[in-house]
Each structure stands twice: as structure tokens, then as C-alpha cells.
Amino acid sequence: MVRRLRKTKKSQKYNYNRNRKRLNKKIHGTGTVKCPEIKNDMDFRKNLNANISEMGLAFDVNKTLPVPNAKRERTKLARYVNGFLEEDASDLESESTRNPPPKIYVAERLEKDSKEFVEVRFRLSRGQVRFITGMIDAYGFNYKAMAQDKRNYDQETWRQMRQKVRRFLTIPQQCTPYLKRKGWLDCDMSDSSDPRWKEYGTDDEE
């Protein structure tokens, strides 16, 4: 029997303040299902793998879409050369005629939801909004002047400043109050003839 080091033995103390039952559930549990489509059709008497398979989904993507195996491809080629093509075709026909999963509508519902348009919920922080609006008040849309301002602590380039301003203008919930205060709410941003929306220091000028 190998003797343990004194330091190792000393550091291994039982923690009486730890809830062992809760810890065991955390280690061996599958976690909470956050997807409502999957959660509503879950059969908790079965394991997670069986539930996912019944819904027409893949529990392990590596098994569903495996990495191409050169050895497997050579075996198929050898079977084709040796005249086993008819047997492989019969196996493929049996797989294609297999009954669909009983809860295939879950996969169809998820596919339909993924194709629907989702509103962008990105928001800038209050500090970023104050910084961008202050720069626009001081320099308009002259991004090179913004980059040289002393408040530009992060030393961002004029292209980064332009990206921030354009992103701010694409968030109606944050830019609409500012445009209303400036009196630019009824203006057309795409109108290049309007001097208020003229951008300086863009790629077109270089």
C-alpha cells in the first residue's frame, strides 16, 4: 500500500456545510429543459436520449453527422467492386421506409420557428449612448474628429466610431428620443444632400 503524502491527507477534509443530496442531483441530473417545445412533449419516465429520438431530433450530432471515415469509405468501395451493391441498396431502402418518429411534429415546429424573423434585442449601455450622443453633438458625423477627441479613452479608430454611431442609429428604442430632442425625427437619414446627415471620414473619401 502506497502511503499518501502528509500535505495531501491534510487538505482532504470533509466539508460538513455542503449539501450532499443537492450536489449528487447536480452531478447526475440532466438539468432543466429550457426549450418549451421540447419540455411540453417530454416523457419524464424515459431518459433524455429516448425523448430526443422520439421527437425526430439528434441527441449526439457526432453520431448523426459523423466525420468522414477513410476506412469506411474504402470498405464501401470494396463491397461495390466485389458485387455487394444490391445488398447495400436493400439496406438503404429499408432505412428509407422506416416509420417516422412518433413526435416528429416537434422537429417540424422547431424548424418553422427557426425560419421566422426574430426582432433584434441588442441594446447599447447607457454609458455608450451618452458617449455616442455627446460625440454627435460635438462633431456631427465627422468620425475622424471623434477619434481624436480626448474622451476617446479606448483610442478607438474612426472606423470603430463609425460602427458605433451606425449601430446606435439602428436601435429605434434608443435613438428615437435623441432624434426627437434634436428635431431630426422627420428627417430622412438616407438623404445625402441633407448636410445634417453628411458623413465625414468615410471610405468613399479616401
TrEMBL record:
InterPro entries: Ribosome_biogenesis_Nop16 (IPR019002). Keywords: Nucleus. Coiled coil: none annotated. The keyword Cell membrane does not apply. It is found in: Nucleus, Nucleolus. Pfam families: Nop16 (PF09420). It comes from the Eukaryota. PANTHER family: HSPC111 PROTEIN-RELATED (PTHR13243), NUCLEOLAR PROTEIN 16 (PTHR13243:SF1). Belongs to the NOP16 family. This is Nucleolar protein 16. It comes from Aedes albopictus. The lineage of its organism: Eukaryota, Metazoa, Ecdysozoa, Arthropoda, Hexapoda.
